[in-house]
Design brief:
This protein is of the alpha/beta class. It has two domains: about 160 residues, 3-Layer(aba) Sandwich (Rossmann fold); about 120 residues, Elongation Factor Tu (Ef-tu), domain 3. It is built from eleven helices and 14 strands. The strands form three sheets. Strands 1-4-3-2-5-6 form a six-stranded parallel beta sheet, with helices on both faces. A six-stranded antiparallel barrel has the order 9-10-13-12-11-14. Strands 7-8 form a two-stranded antiparallel ribbon. α7 links the parallel β5 and β6. α8 packs antiparallel against α9. It is elongated.
Length: about 325
């Protein structure tokens, strides 16, 4: 997690909980995407911390446990660690414990894990999703935490229709391009975070300069052109984005690229982290007969994106 960028205090080891003065309330989980179910766990933990004059620390893990235990089925992330820090800060989280997840960590027994937490700080309580399991063999649950003399609370799952809200459900919605369902599950528009890298500057010669984003292993919607908002200079700015392989100018490209044209912006963004919210799919990516046809279509895309974003407000 990028503590400097998010303004968050990031601890890297359980022992570092001892640096916090006063009682500690922990919210534990992976929190990928920080969906509306995660938000309930966070809100309950923050409320308890306020009542007990404690510090709420969100404990999470890097990398995703499946990347260590079953890398062949490890999912794309909804949020990189840097992105997650930004999102968590927006929900009031000020302290995060980011534990390195490796095979040694995975082998820790549930009772030993709770004991480590108890011995590290003035532990007031632990909040988790009611279905969360932990420790070697996934033996740990709320009942086990309580048996070790720690107040523990399993926050009920949140439903969307007849399905439990989960990171997997969000990921599936994004993958199929269902941005409305993704927004309902997240409580906000789906976004990705990427660092602006140097491109071939072709879009600039066409009159539509773009920021080329190096997206950090996050789940992307289907290729196409989107009305988006980009967070630059402390504000959300209207923009249009092309997510795809740019078949008109680079017919041999294999990897997806994300290019964002921010309206009414003349600034050097190289090296900056930019968050992009996907608001609405405008059209599929197609190959044009030449640059003049591409330029004319980009102008139409910009006009349509402006209309969409004006209609949706902030």
């Amino acid at each position: 997690m990028d503590a400097q960028d998010s303004g968050m205090t990031v601890l890297k080891d359980i022992a570092e909980l001892g640096s916090i003065n006063g009682p500690v309330v922990l919210a534990i989980g992976f929190f990928d995407g920080v969906h509306i179910g995660h938000q309930q766990v966070i809100a309950r933990a923050l409320q308890r911390a306020a009542e007990r004059r404690a510090t709420m620390v969100l404990m999470t893990f890097d990398p995703h446990p499946l990347r260590v235990l079953r890398p062949e089925i490890a999912p794309k992330l909804l949020c990189s660690m840097e992105h997650q820090a930004r999102v968590l800060t927006s929900y009031g989280v000020t302290h995060t414990l980011l534990c390195k997840f490796d095979r040694e960590f995975a082998a820790i027994g549930a009772e030993e894990f709770v004991l480590q937490l108890k011995n590290s700080c003035a532990l007031d309580s632990i909040f988790v999703g009611e279905a969360w399991r932990f420790g070697k063999g996934r033996r740990g649950d709320v009942a086990l935490i309580r048996s070790q003399g720690v107040d523990a609370f399993g926050v009920p799952s949140v439903m969307h229709g007849d399905k439990v809200v989960s990171s997997t459900l969000v990921r599936q919605a994004v993958e199929r391009g269902d941005l409305l369902v993704a927004k309902a599950l997240l409580g906000r528009d789906y976004s990705v975070l990427g660092r602006v890298i140097e491109g071939n500057k072709l879009a600039r010669t066409l009159g539509f300069p773009t920021a080329n984003l190096d997206v950090q292993n996050e789940q992307l919607p289907p290729a196409g052109v989107y009305a988006v908002r980009a967070f630059i200079g402390g504000e959300w700015r209207a923009a249009v984005a092309n997510l795809g392989r740019r078949p008109t100018v680079d017919p041999d490209a294999q990897a997806l690229s994300l290019e964002v044209h921010v309206f009414d912006l003349n600034a050097d963004l190289y090296g900056q982290l930019v968050e992009v919210r996907f608001i609405e799919h405008l059209r599929d990516e197609v190959k044009f007969p030449g640059l003049d046809a591409l330029k004319a279509q980009i102008a139409r895309d910009c006009e349509r994106a402006c209309e969409v974003l004006a209609g949706k407000g902030e």
